[in-house]
Amino acid sequence: MSEAVVLVTADADQFTCNAYLLLGETPTLVDAGTMPGVARVVADHTDTLDRVVLTHQHSDHVGRLDEVVDAFDPDVFAYADHPHRTEAIEDGDRVAMGDERFDVVYTPGHATDHVSLVSETRLFSGDVVVYNDGAYDDGSFGRTDMAGQSRERLITSLKALLERLPDSVTSMYAGHGDAFHAADHDDSVRDVVERALSRAELRQPKYPEE
């Protein structure tokens, strides 16, 4: 597979989500982040950007969307309405990104418009599940203590994600923390998601200040 995944916000010195560039037949940016100059980083790797796919529209995921749209005029795929949205996506849709096609899985709880993207080899999980963060290592979940969020709905979303996660998925790219590659660990992507689910099901505050 010729496709590569580039973390274009790797050099950010302020809070941002992870924004990932998929190279290949359909150059795609998953989320835009908040790092000034993110469009220049994308341009270092590709002359064209076919589309931006948003996992959700929290400010740390769409802060530089204007910049990216101005630079590349891509189609913008999103679950919820947005001034830049050109394509609405729903649960069960399939979206071409890079050299693969990804199933859209509606995964609210952290955000009402949250989706995850699942191919035969990769999971882009946004903030519904992350590998590591300030709360847990080896399987954590998005916070659910703010307005519009729901721990119960997030738990349901994690279960739905597991039902639709092929065993062939070996890499997980989350909105925060490190990417996870099963080849570098004893766990599988499924193990990580199941661990996040078990922790969410404890229904304890994720952070002490909650």
TrEMBL record:
Organism the protein comes from: Salinigranum rubrum
Alphabetized GO MF terms: hydrolase activity; metal ion binding
Pfam families recorded: Lactamase_B (PF00753)
InterPro entries according to UniProt: MBL_Glyoxalase_II, Metallo-B-lactamas, RibonucZ/Hydroxyglut_hydro
Keyword Zinc: yes
Keyword field contains Transmembrane helix: no
Cofactor(s) needed for function: Zn(2+)
Annotated PANTHER family: HYDROXYACYLGLUTATHIONE HYDROLASE GLOC (PTHR46233:SF3)
Domain called Metallo-beta-lactamase: residue spans: 16-176
Superkingdom, natural source: Archaea
Protein name as it appears in the record: MBL fold metallo-hydrolase
Highest classification ranks of the organism: Archaea, Methanobacteriati, Methanobacteriota, Stenosarchaea group, Halobacteria
Record keywords, A-Z: Hydrolase, Metal-binding, Zinc
